[in-house]
Design goal:
With 101 residues, the protein is mainly β. The protein has one helix and six strands, in the order βαβββββ. It has a domain of 68 residues: GroES chaperonin (10 Kd Chaperonin, Protein Cpn10, Chain O, Roll), CATH 2.30.33.
Amino acid sequence: MKTKTKQTKIEFDITKFKFLRDLLLIKAIRPEGTNGLVDPHSYEDKPEFGTVIAVGDEVKDIKVGDVVRFGKYSTENIRTKGQDYFIVHSEDLSAVLKWKN
């Protein structure tokens, strides 16, 4: 007879983690449609842009708050509290958005 094991769902605040080496924690930026809503067709794909939430101690030229572009399939995806986060190696970033002042 098979017994059903109860799986515990754990919610945690990923932003409280300390990231090591060259790792970055990035909060996904989802493209909005013309009506201000997230386009459901683009939501199916992994996002390519995000805001840096935390940086590892070996990351040099990227800081918290930067908007970055990363490879779609070079990330580890974490979904917690209804938000998508990605853990990315700094070498997998392809661009950092620089704002003009």
